[in-house]
Design goal:
Strand content: 25-35%
CATH topology: Rossmann fold
Distance between the termini: 61 Å
Number of strands: 9
CATH superfamily: Vaccinia Virus protein VP39
CATH class: Alpha Beta
Radius of gyration: 17 Å
Shape: globular
Largest sheet: 7 strands, mixed
Helix content: 10-25%
Strand order of the largest sheet: 5-4-3-6-7-9-8
Structural class: alpha/beta
Number of helices: 5
Length: 202
């Protein structure tokens, strides 16, 4: 039998906690609003992911697509990433993320209140991305168009790390030059880390 959810007080504004687990902001507690489709990456998965990423995060330029709470991008900044672009179209989630970036004095964080796929398809970057977090709302099925846009616009630096979080039955295909580095399944979530290797145009 499913557990009955505890009703939150009206004054609580339906906010959820977020704790950063490593780096300069380790242990800092933030919060974010309860929004449809917003499903932050849990502590255990984040811990595993950033153990995988440890050599690649410092000084990295990256993007947290479909940022939501910003848990992944904030964790990367906490652990030494140079710059992180956060894309979030939900107004409440974007405002909370802006507030949290200000609270942390995260000068390397740039928030774009924009649909991530639109940004990937039409936006610009000042440097190729070395670190990409791709964790869209599962019901939206945005993995393939996001992967295709990253490839079409040549957004990735050689050796870039791409993290993809999805449901167990989610279907998408990555290019041949995205090498699967690690993959794990926890509950109803599958998470994978790929590395992009540029191919010669000659």
């Amino acid at each position: 039998m499913a557990k009955q959810q505890r009703r939150q007080p009206a004054g609580d504004s339906l906010r959820q906690p977020l704790r950063l687990i490593g780096g300069q902001w380790r242990g800092r507690k933030l919060d974010f609003p309860l929004c449809d489709g917003l499903r932050p990456t849990g502590d255990r998965i984040r811990e595993t992911l950033f153990n995988w990423l440890a050599p690649y995060v410092p000084e990295a330029v990256g993007a947290d697509l479909y940022a939501g709470s910003g848990a992944l991008g904030l964790e990367a900044l906490s652990r030494g990433a140079a710059r992180m672009t956060f894309c979030e179209r939900d107004p409440a989630a974007a405002k909370a993320l802006a507030d949290n970036l200000k609270r942390l004095d995260a000068s390397g964080g740039q928030l774009l209140h924009i649909d991530a796929l639109h940004w990937l398809s039409t936006g610009d970057i000042t440097a190729p991305l070395a670190l990409v977090f791709l964790d869209p709302p599962f019901a939206a099925d945005l993995w393939q168009p996001s992967i295709d846009a990253l490839v079409a616009r040549e957004w990735l630096a050689d050796g870039a790390a791409i993290y993809i979080e999805s449901g167990l039955d989610s279907v998408f295909q990555v290019p041949d030059n995205w090498q699967l580095h690690r993959e794990k399944r926890t509950g109803g979530v599958c998470y994978r880390l790929y590395f992009y290797r540029a191919t010669s145009k000659d």
